[in-house]
């Protein structure tokens, strides 16, 4: 029995909890289910592509993962911690481990790029200006915008704002990222720079992420490619690269608040389901 317990403990240590896990989650708005019995998990270093028609519950899932909403039934678990019993005053530390990027970028118009990026550091109580500037330059360099550190948001293009938003989200090295239509409204070339950053964070930093997108071309790019340190761009996944295989990315399709499909890119492409075939056209 002692050996068995030891083995269980060892196995637990070798297999850390999922980054995000939903267990039979229900959420009601005005007695109508916004989510119905939703279950899925996002492993460490994995990307979940979240698809679905408008109103299917995609943004609701992000709000639950952030603890902005509480499940009425079931469990939302972040890095092994059930968010249900966590009081709001204790949510700050959990949210500090999650970065989020919105479609609009959500930058503070009255603050410079540097002040926007350093905002989370100030929230954490950092006071050393030189240290904060150094970190801001580091993450702006990661998104290839260090030269814009003194600019104001009004001086930036839409794509640049989105990249600054990513820099701000990763300034404190969160292990989890949430993207809410991060490429929405961008031209294809600019959208591709955001996709490269998403995969760069996964394949260089090991970040786990949920990506909400309405752009199917982006979804399949993220599923089929990985970031190459050698080229600084994307290369097809070979099966033994940084992402390991296409299993590093999974698809979850919501339909009217329920999980309609959850599986690999190959599975979603090869499905004979009529709804999915129409949705993926």
Question: Can you summarize this structure?
Answer:
The chain has helices at residues 2-14, 58-65, 91-95, 113-123, 129-142, 158-170, 188-205, 216-224, 265-270, 274-279; strands at residues 20-29, 32-42, 47-52, 73-78, 81-82, 98-102, 176-180, 208-212, 225-228, 233-236, 249-255, 258-263. The protein is of the alpha/beta class. Helix 5 (129-142) crosses helix 6 and helix 6 runs parallel beside helix 7 (188-205).
What does this structure look like?
With 281 residues, the chain is an alpha/beta fold. It is built from ten helices and twelve strands. The strands form three sheets. A six-stranded mixed sheet has the order 6-7-8-3-11-12, sandwiched between helices. Strand 1 (20-29) and strand 2 form a beta hairpin. It is globular, with a radius of gyration of 19 Å.
